[in-house]
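Thread: "does anyone have the structure for this chain?"

Original post by V.I.:
We have the sequence but no experimental structure in hand. Need at least a predicted one for the grant figures.
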Amino acid sequence: MKKILFPTDFSETANNALIYALKMADSQKATLFVLHAYEMPVISATANPVMVQDVYKSIELSNFENFKDQVPFIRDIAKENNLDHVPMHFILEEGFLNTILKKRVEEEEIDLVVMGTNGNSGWDRKLLGSNTVNAINSLKAPVLSVPHDAVFNGINSIAFSTLFAASDKIVLDKLVKIAKGYDATIKCIHVIEDVEKVNREVVESWLEYYDGNPITFTLVEGKDVEKEIFTFLDKENIDLLVSVKRNRSFLEKLFTSSMTKKLSYHTHVPIIAFHEE
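Reply from O.Q.:
Generated one for you, tokens below.
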């Protein structure tokens, strides 16, 4: 990873995620792109054109001044965490956040997007904010969601939920490089209703392929995939969960309020979502 994009609204949640983004960039020797996007208000077409222009100029100036004031504060956060050596590039842009993210990911060839999420502040809230969900669904780059309650204490143990699909191996190959930057262990988990139905030849081929790497494989029998994965997170003291975004995947279920009600106490575990390739 050489380029990490971090969108921020300068909130407490975003500043917490900033530390994750900085430490990710530090471990990967990457540049951190700090992005703040703002939207212009919709003004009636019948309004005085001169007045509209003045309003837009005022809003642009206000956003620029706010952004200019926030840059030193962001640098202070980096310095307080001994991360001021991490190269940062600041971007202020007008428009819809998701549109700008897609453009910047493609133009800058971003390797990872890091986003802070508000977590669960009520049973009806989703684990990941709508902006993060939109990013995961639309961006080509993987998205790291950092919950508000997450505290970075290093990454020693990474969980990877897998179906032993060929597309999962592509993601796992990338994950191995990330893990080595932290000297972390990757703990793969495969949940299946009947362990006897596991394709042993495929499992053996994976074991052989990843021999010598800091990777373990666990087969868990159960019907409730999400429950088994989160039980695994607790049992193995996982610092980071990695999953692949599929059409009807574990991640999709994670975004529903019913899952949030069941798993709200797991809002301290960051999640990286990769797209299936």
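V.I.: this helps a lot. The first strand starts at residue 3 and ends at 7.
O.Q.: and The radius of gyration is 21 Å.
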